[in-house]
Amino acid sequence: MNTLPTVIQGGMGAGVSNWRLASSVSRLGQLGVVSGTALDQIFARRLQDGDPGGHMRLGLDHFPFSEVAERVWSRYFIPGGKPAGAPYRKLRLHAKDNSIELVELCLAANFVEVYLARQGHTYPVGINYLEKVQIPHLPSIYGAMLGGVGYVLMGAGIPLKIPGVLDRLAKHEPATYELQVHGACEGDDRTMTFVPRHYMDRDHPPLTRPKFLPIVASNVLATTMQKKSNGRVDGFVIEGPEAGGHNAPPRGNPPLNEAGEPAYGLRDRVDLQKLRELDLPFWLAGGYGSPEKLREALAAGAAGVQVGTAFAFCTESGISAQYKHAILNSVRRGQARVFTDPVASPTDFPFKVVQLEDSLSDPTVYLARPRVCDLGYLRQAYRTPDGTIGYRCAAEPVTAYVSKGGAAENTAGRKCLCNALLANIGHPQRRGGGYLEKGLITSGNDLSTLTLFLPADGLAFSAADVLAKLLCEVPPARWAEPDGSERRPGCSAVPIPV
Fold first, then answer.
1. Residue 176: exposed, middle, or buried by beta-carbon count in 10 A (0-12, 13-18, 19+)?
2. Which of 256, 334, 370, 498 is 20 to 30 A removed from 384 (C-alpha atoms)?
3. Angle at Cα 156 formed by Cα 152 and Cα 160, nearest 5°?
4. Is the pLDDT of residue 497 over 60?
5. pTM over 0.90
């Protein structure tokens, strides 16, 4: 019996892979995944918009720590939504020793997203995090585990210590994580600690430890994760440079190609024979969003594929209708273009950007944006001259970045992904003078292949349409119940309204 999903829906962007999308995929027997990036901000903005549909309230009503739930609700909910044209409330930026307010928001936001994605079916739901966004990890993962998350996926870093975190949090035990600090010295205090019982209002039974799937781009990293992690690794997602979002830099630091993009070569390809020798299931990602590529992956020994782009532009995804419609129109006309930008991200990782008018991919729009860093998820922690921890971002105002020891040349072309990703999903911040944050849409290289899913008479297609196309020649996934009986795709309860 196959107890693994054939298709993993990518955990994309901030709020692109939302609970609606993950629910749609999981209820059909594959693995729906919510994005854990900036969920605290997204949740707070949903509440400030008046919680349309009442879904956030529904989730909070089931949060096991009722006092935390009520504090989060009272802090951020605005009945009827904030006035049109008013800015969203500015939250504190994450720091090594986070405020209780931010910790509680992370707990609640991650719980609610997973809880909502799990309603109406009995199949697992996953959550995806970026290892580079380290400070929210502990409360965010615990909140997702309280919500019953079945899989934790993590890329953009080397998450060797996450398996041990999962083991401890499943038992409600204190967990720690080391913050990467540029220039840190031996003996510096870089340990972040989360104690679940500080937030519990009563004892709770142990949680189910989710499976852990690191997202890797090389055999070396896969082997390192298997041999050196401080707990169980349950498989891998192997992501090639065709995938959307952040890409691993090409090995050997080759010069850019003629188009100004990073040049990937044979050294950047994973040896699947060596990967099979690790004897763990793996899924291939990056350009695998077609029936042919799925068959190719299965023939190579993969458990299946992770698909992002097709799900990112389906009706259930969080990308705003304005951007989604414009991009799908360009796909229909054969004009869609994705550029792997070597400098857009403050992280120094290449970042794939859809070229789109009225977005930050347009140099004129980018230059018109005031440089500001007020969300701070991608900031770099660094050691200050007095031995404390400071935070800087190459997309913040240049003078501020330089004053913190950053090199001025590192700021050229850097874009505020944090604010752009929230604008992508319909929560743009409004600033003084009426400036409204613009989006920056990311996609895999296979954007043009969305014609496979587009109907002849329109631009809308669903997650179910994507799965039907991908799996047209593949037997449906089957999951094993704890008693050994077989469970096939289908709903076990009435879905919550979407």
1. middle
2. 370
3. 60
4. no
5. yes
